[in-house]
Design goal:
By secondary structure, the protein is an alpha+beta fold. Helix content is 20%, strand content 23%. The longest helix has 19 residues, at 44-62. The two termini are 38 Å apart.
């Protein structure tokens, strides 16, 4: 506690980090103001990122570790989970509330799920709403008698510069629905894979699903229309040095509910469920406030020691998203 000069004899209350109190004897006591816990600053820009993380983390969990080797040349200490968030945060514009996330909610959204140097597989819907790739199958019509060796031979023969023995072809399919009880959006993703081996006589559909391994107009595609779902094919291989090589692919999404969870209204609902946007417009000029008296008062405090000058601190209100969320992702609580 310090003593104040006559200049401060009529001041009481808080000035900066100091408290002034007038005693019954007419003296002024000065002491440090108690720390007050401030509401964390959450700007709109910060919340756009954090709410995107919630959606992406929920989606990543739906892949159930199957994206563990989906990116080439990851930096030391960086996982496919980290890469997935980095690839998609900027473009994610679909949002879940905290309650929806904790209820197990998830959304199928157009997003990048792999990254690498192999040529990407192209796919698009035909006139019947069936998703079809650009992988030609020649005269092969896949049926229950088709073997892994049959499809492998066709892929290698028709695409000799792209497909090699031992390469892997993976198909992901997701289905979107809404929980009838809670109204929570839910997604389920299933993956199927085969390795090219022209000697393998195993029936193809015993290993993978006809859902993503069928002939559509001479090309590899789905065996049904895609509705409220998502799909992707991925080409990958292990090279001579044992390194991953993979094509860059994104989920194709057809969803009748996605629009409900996009846009400013959905973002505001999501952000409010995590504490809301708390930043206020800064006022840099205060012409109606006499700051000279306060400055003189603070400089005139006698603390009983030599001349001292105080510093000022600034808090870091940002958040980089933390470390690797593990195989199942982070818990999504970003408040």
């Amino acid at each position: 506690m310090g003593k104040a000069t006559k200049l401060l004899k009529d001041i009481s209350g808080k000035v900066g980090s100091l408290m002034f109190k007038q005693t019954k004897s007419g003296k002024t006591s000065v002491y440090a103001a108690p720390d007050v816990k401030e509401t964390p600053t959450r700007t709109k820009a910060q919340m756009l990122v954090r709410m995107a993380w919630v959606t992406l983390i929920a989606l990543f969990k739906m892949f159930r570790k199957t994206l563990k080797h989906s990116h080439e040349n990851l930096l030391p200490g960086r996982s496919d989970y980290n890469a997935f968030l980095a690839d998609n945060t900027k473009n994610c514009r679909a949002y879940l509330t905290k309650t929806e996330f904790r209820n197990g909610g998830s959304l199928l959204i157009p997003c990048q799920i792999s990254q690498g140097s192999l040529e990407s597989i192209s796919y698009e819907k035909n006139g019947s709403n069936v998703l079809v790739t650009d992988i030609p199958l020649g005269s092969l019509v896949i049926d229950a008698n088709t073997t892994i060796g049959d499809l492998s031979a066709v892929l290698e023969a028709n695409n000799p510069d792209e497909w090699l023995e031992g390469d892997q072809l993976t198909f992901f399919y997701g289905q979107q629905k809404v929980d009838a009880v809670t109204g929570t959006p839910r997604a389920k993703i299933t993956g199927y894979k085969m390795k090219l081996d022209i000697t393998d006589d195993t029936p193809l559909w015993d290993v993978v699903s006809a859902l993503g391994f069928s002939t559509v107009g001479g090309y590899l595609g789905m065996n049904q229309a895609i509705t409220d779902g998502a799909a992707a094919w991925i080409h990958s291989r292990e090279d001579e040095e044992g390194n991953l090589r993979i094509g860059t692919q994104s989920l194709f999404v057809d969803s009748s509910i996605l629009a409900t969870y996009t846009g400013d209204t959905a973002f505001q609902a999501s952000a409010n469920s995590y504490g809301g946007i708390t930043d206020k417009q800064k006022v840099f000029l205060r012409p109606d406030e006499d700051t000279n008296t306060v400055r003189v008062a603070v400089e005139s405090v006698n603390t009983g020691g030599g001349e001292q000058s105080g510093g000022s601190g600034s808090g870091n209100s940002g958040n980089s998203g933390g470390g690797d969320g593990g195989d199942d992702g982070d818990d999504g609580d970003v408040s």
